[in-house]
């Protein structure tokens, strides 16, 4: 049956961030729907943000388009253009290489839920606010040193 | 600003279906969000189904994963496993090559809204209920004749 049974899919708050940048996403609970439902051409993450949690550190990708749609609750989209409230049905696109660091932050007192769509992660990712780069293979500092 | 302004994106009920199969989707109103917002790696269609309208003829793709999420209203997912109500927040995956013809039908009295995600269309599509095949380049009948 094609309808997705969310309860049957593992939910995790794991992160690959170095410890010093991990606290911001401790309240981010992700279900990876693509692999769990047989999709291989793109990924769909179902994400619950607890109050105070961020979707990621603010970042942009050199080689990966991203798209998000809010399903419930409220988050603030923070990017170079400012702060934008995002509520159920609101959507945003982040074209690869746009240089516009972005993330969603749950500043409300309730959980919010969104979907994030992207290709298999590839290429470098930039984090304008913190001393972090994703090389495409590993995290390192902007001077090239490893964590 | 990454947040999508739906009102600024063209909405159309155009279809490439042969005339005899087009009536079912006359009340399907699509906005293609990917090209309009700078995404090229995958497509996202914002779809409003008027009462009585279907998302497509029932079909499956040989070479194209599909994913849908309901944003508002109610539709019935019709596939080989039967009929499944789909409401806001409900999601479904259609892995390429699964052979399971599917579509959404709005049998309610109100509009419903969903998003459909897929790669750039490619490969053959099969329509189990009607005399139609998409070759990857054109529609034709199952005996190979053209419309």
From TrEMBL, chains A, B:
SUPFAM superfamilies: RmlC-like cupins. InterPro entries: Cupin_2 (IPR013096), GPI/OXD (IPR051610), RmlC-like_jellyroll (IPR014710), RmlC_Cupin_sf (IPR011051). Pfam families: Cupin_2. Residues 46-117 form the Cupin type-2 domain. The lineage of its organism: Bacteria, Pseudomonadati, Pseudomonadota, Alphaproteobacteria, Sphingomonadales. This is Transcriptional regulator. It comes from Sphingobium chungbukense. Keywords: Metal-binding. One of its GO terms (molecular function) is metal ion binding.
């Amino acid at each position: 049956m094609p309808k997705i049974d969310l309860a049957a899919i593992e939910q995790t708050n794991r992160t690959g961030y170095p410890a010093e940048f991990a606290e911001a996403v401790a309240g981010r609970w992700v279900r990876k729907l693509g692999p769990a439902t047989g999709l291989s051409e793109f990924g769909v993450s179902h994400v619950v943000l607890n109050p105070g949690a961020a979707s990621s550190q603010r970042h942009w990708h050199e080689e990966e388009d991203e798209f998000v749609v809010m399903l419930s609750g409220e988050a603030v989209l923070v990017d170079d253009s400012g702060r934008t409230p995002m509520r159920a049905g609101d959507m945003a696109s982040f074209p690869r290489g746009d240089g516009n660091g972005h993330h969603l932050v749950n500043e409300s007192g309730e959980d919010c839920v969104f979907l994030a769509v992207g290709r298999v992660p590839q290429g470098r990712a930039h984090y304008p606010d913190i001393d972090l780069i994703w090389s495409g293979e590993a995290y390192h500092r902007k001077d090239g040193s490893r964590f």
